[in-house]
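TA notes. Do not distribute before section.
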Amino acid sequence: MSLNCSSPMDPRSQFAVRLPRDASMDIIMSPNSQNQIGSDGDPKERIRRLLQKVEISSSAYDTAWAAMVPSPPAAYSQQRQQGVVPHFPECVNWILENQLKDGSWGLQLPDSRHPRLVKDTLSSTLACVLALTQWGIGEQLIHSALGFMERNRGSLSDPRQWDPVGFDVIFPAMIHTAGTQNLNLNHHLLLGNRESAPSPASGGRNAYLAYISEGLGASQDWGTTMKFQRKNGSLFNSPSATAAAAIHLRDADSLRYLRSIVDPMKGAVPSIYPHGIMARLCAIDNIKHLGIDLHFQVEIKQALDDIYTSWRQGDEEIFLDCATCAMAFRILRLSGYRLSPYALTRYTEDGFWSDTLEGYLKDEKAVLELYRASRIMYHDASVLENQMCWTRDFLMQLTDPESCQNYDVHDVLNYPLYVELEPMAYKRNIEQYLTDNTRMLKSSYSCANFGGGFFLKPAVDEYNAQQSLHLKKLEHLMQWLQEHKLDEMRVAKMKMNYCYFNSVTTFCDPSLAEARIAFSKSTVLVSLIDDLFDIHGTREEHLNIIQLFERWDVDRPKVDFCSEAVETLYWAIHSTLCETVEKAFPTQGRSVMDHVVELWLDMLKAMFKEAEWSRTNTVPAFDEYITNATLTIGLGPFLVPALYLVGHRLSEDAVKGTQFCRLFNVTALGCRLFNDIRGFEREAEQGKVNAVSLQSIDQNNNAEQVIKQTEIWIKNLNREVLRMSMDEKDYGVPDAVRDVFWKFVKGLYLFYAKEDLYFNSTKLIKVVESIIKEPLNPPIAT
């Protein structure tokens, strides 16, 4: 082995630059370990910091390429020129001080090297060897590094190893350069002759070649390459590619970009910079997916405001990166910010997407984010439909979604946006959580914002605390059934389990226990009243319960009870309404009893009309039926009283206003249509009409076609609920109230997506018990 080094054995002080780290930096660098920085202390405090800053590992590979940039700017040559020194001596110093014990440079986990990163480590180590050899220093380090490479050369042909982007071009090029520097590596035995880069072509191929510029060197088409230079001076925010431009072109903007990294980071260079917007988005996404966002609302709002400002300013960090653009769109839109989808729709399968670096690399992460974003449709559904189709097809071709080990792809394909019920999603996300935050570009890197065990602990604690609370509240509700003799009625206990579960998915905020209780009680009562009108009640009982509400009195009824069943139900409803109204008074500043009683009376009268149709074999017109049926579904009596308990004032003008009424009516209509398409066959056997049978008559169509049309109608209604729920203009309706409607709609998909689970108790009990009773089985946090 021959070394072309003129310096002493280990002259580490030649380019040493020792500067204290600035604690106020927006990016915090870690020399090797993905968990070294901020790993101690309260996990919540660390997460709070990650919403403001980026914790990212340094890249030996990119640092080495920055270290190879000469100063004053001069063309790269095979021989060291007299008087030429490193433009970034801090980077050389970093290499001298950060070789690992085994002689390598690269990303290292706290306890061991990642088993699939040996090939990546060989690339980083060789880049560091070239940098030290260029400046004639670190002979002892080079000797140790070459020993590491010799011992691990078998990993170059190991199919289990992760390939850095462009490895098949860049690594052979570095081997060639090592040969010109008299470093006898003998790696031709493993790699054969140096591989040539693919011939330049248009679109994505040109982007790819620009991205791996350091592997092409003087043979690069620099005129085409520099068309990809960004406003910050970089090529694709890649320090290594930008360093190649600085070396071969003496490009001032490239040097300015590299200096913006090296100065604040004291010589350590990351794999990608800037990366702050994506990192903060990932931290927010982690927090929301694990169900701990209530602990960080202030910090999340500040981060989202910053990102929204960047979006409106057309920040290249967002709009020149497909995954960042898609994730920003999804998270911002779901958080109530108004954004046009047209920034995403340019990524068509056979259009702009194919001209991007991500498109050329068939970047699964980018496609996954595009698919997730395309599901956030409002009135602009047609704009995003095509994108959702091609991205879904792309992901489906990657793997079998039923057996996929990639949980992100599996979940997004198997759990559409409308069925992502928070408690179920939180449990699934916690149990499948991957604490490894390693990513691969041209070199591997880790970013704490992407995830880690410290996210998991508060999530597990929060979930366990909420499950314990739910068990206690469910026990309280079962006692309430007994106190009011409702447990003697048909399937009341079973219905309470379902209704409380529905309350948990609708009122997810842990502080909304009172709203969940009111919702659960009212939902059970509406269900029992429905049975009275629909199954076993008499016409006399129907009229009796209506009269009791028409002459409502908070103290004692002014009408006699005609049966024990009516008396039992009335007093249970009376007690629940009085309790709910009393608890709502401090927040609302008024009694809402009149409104609540009005909602109940409207439903009861609509149920009576429906019962009369059945008794007289009357077939109503579809419009008459649907107007009446949106009342009989019972949304007013069981949802609105609970809305008064969400902790926000809901004024009388607001609940009578256009937006609240439309939000309510669209939700009620979707609920009714869902109920009717899943209950069509059962009700047809009973001789009852519903939306499906009446449309079949009107359209002279078979039921199957009507159901398909109605499902499209439901989908559009739900998109409208989503739009109104997330609209940043509240029109006097608080965000928390509007959010309840969207969560309720998502719950409908659980109960009605494929069948009416209210009539399949076995399946529904399993779902309820999995959230309310079954213990969490989280992975071991690392």
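Switch to the second chain here.
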Amino acid sequence: MAEAHQAVAFQFTVTPDGIDLHMSHQALTEIYLSGVRSWKKRIIGLKNSVITGVYPASPSSWLFVVIAILATMYTRSDPSMGLIAKIQEHLPVSQSMSNQCQTLVSAVLFSTMLWLLLIFTMRMCLKQLLSYHRWMFEKHGKMSNTTKVWVALVRIFSGRKPLLYSYQGSLPNLPVPAIKDTVKRHLESVRPLMDDAEYERMTKLSAEFESSLGKRLHWYLKLKALWATNYVSDWWEEYVYLRGRSPIMVNSNYYGMDFMYVTPTPIQAARAGNSLHAYFLYRRKLNKEELKPWLLRSAVPCCSYQFERMFDTCRIPGTLTDTVQHWQDSDYIAVYHSGRYFRLRMYHAGRLLSPREIEFQIQKILDDPSPPSKGEAKLGALTAGDRIPWAKARMKYFSSGVNKRSLDYIEKAAFFVSLDDDEQGGMADDPTRLDSYAKSLLHGKCFDRWFDKSFTVVYFKNGKMGLNGEHSWADAPVLSHAWQYVLSTDCFQLGYNAEGHCKGEVDASLPQPQKLNWEIPPECEEQISGSLAVAQALADDVDVHVFAFEEFGKGKIKRCRVSPDAFIQLALQLAYYRDQGRFCLTYEASMTRLFKEGRTETVRSCTNESSAFVRALEGGEVRPREMSLDFHSSEKHQHLYRMAMTGAGIDRHLFCLYVVSKYLRVESPFLKEVLSEPWRLSTSQTPLQVEMFDIVNYPEYVSCGGGFGPVADDGYGVSYCALGDNMFNFHITCKHSCPDTGANKFGAQIRKALRDLLQLLCPNQTELRKTEVKRPEFKKDL
């Protein structure tokens, strides 16, 4: 009970001589410093709110406007055209205020109103400018004069030194596409998947929907778009993520991996010390809004609202729907090790613990010999199983007493940490170990992750690490930004000493990590076992294959004047056709963050052009000098991607029309069929923050990327990442229960498809370039 004594600020004893009061100066000091830290955060938040609120102007510009107005009045001119005098007439003043003072106050009020009007005008102008998207459809390197003028105006109206959320008030709302355009694009997207009879039937369904029910549903959707900030995002979060009753492990959560070729230190606690410290440095930057807003082509801002719930966030199960809860700045993390849960404070004496101190505290947890409480070891399986049993168990067994207190510590923690007793390796050990490494991050043992937390950081026994992210609060690129910041800070800023430990000293007065207590009844243990059985069956069914393709990268593809993403997508179509003998509905994730609160849109990568090219190639009809089909499919893919990014996609519009139909309790055969189409090939590209890594000088410091589970039981999930100019990384998932799919088999088809496509693009090239660089597995001192 040491933590209980540490938590008491004062004690008193009643004696015959009176009350004997004992004050704990250490505890009172901690309370004082915690209060100071809280007030500092509030002041910073208030300052940032003012700066963001007046953006693209600055608070100091108010003084400039006031001085300009007063200077003009000093020259006997009236810049207000009589408004200052009108304000002075209606100014509630005391008898003691002189006429000159009244004039001064009126001028300041007029200047303030003029300043606010200028801010509003600039913001509206910027909002209109950001609604222009023709620049995206122009060929790379060939910018029109209109776009050049537009870029100049955007930079003029964007102000200087924006904070993370400065652009939020200037971003346009996501437009609602015309119903006829969406129906037309949908028909075009399904043409390569249907024979003539099926396509004719779908055409009739589409025409009937467009001319009748579609118009009614579309009207309601346009009404929502006028009222809501984003007509998609709230429904997408609720119905796609939070209302799902199946396990979120594998089905929704995703994973991110460590460096591919190096492990900065083999010491588990040391790796945790540096990276956990880096996470809290990132959170500090996030709270101060010091992170730079994402800009496309260094000028066009993306929405940043998803960053708000990265830390101190947890998904809470419910019987009908889950909710996402976000709390105030937490000063601790929740840690799991060997069946026990701990609460580890990250601040002491008003400061963030140093990496060496965090390593010291983590090592205490690793060395703690205490056994788990009854029912504690596999408690996390509740978050891995079906949602309804977890919601009922949470309400029945964790709504009061010691269980509620311990659960609150986990759910309100900054994030969750799992100290794994297994070892995982990368390419330097054995390339095949990447598969087990990825599988461990995707689901672990099904009870050693807290899948409801916004993210879980996993540290393996040999110093490797990774993460598991919950999907409802944000999309993967947001968490990837923090992850890559942590990786770069860990190695290139903090570093390790010669023995592989974190640098710095340890304060001897650090409190012990607090072990959480539980009282799990037998009935709850039965529920835990049931959830574990469901989760284990799902985990055992997942087949994962991760590989690095090092024969060429995006650099060589660009020199062939083809979009690397379009090239990869075409290779995936070719690989799938060779693997399955048919085409399928293909999902590629695209972002809509050019709009306020935008998240994702779908690019339907299987097109008439790509399928025609694949059929021609497999039929021996494509020769190196006859590549028009390839270029047509590449251009088509790029056009679809740009349409999705600019709000003219298909699937989010159809999804929202379907939701409206459910609210109105009307049935649509067209929407029912469209929304039930399986995505047998689900793909996503992982972005690499190039400013955080110097891949040219440090080529071994490349991340393995990340991946996700298959969307369809008989399909594939494919995540890929371009690492520099000479390498691609692929993460492939499918299910063992489907006899027609295999992750390794599909990986081999992807490799062959990449080689074949490049050979067609570069027919004179006889030998592909291979990157064969020996890289050490451990690099202890940077």
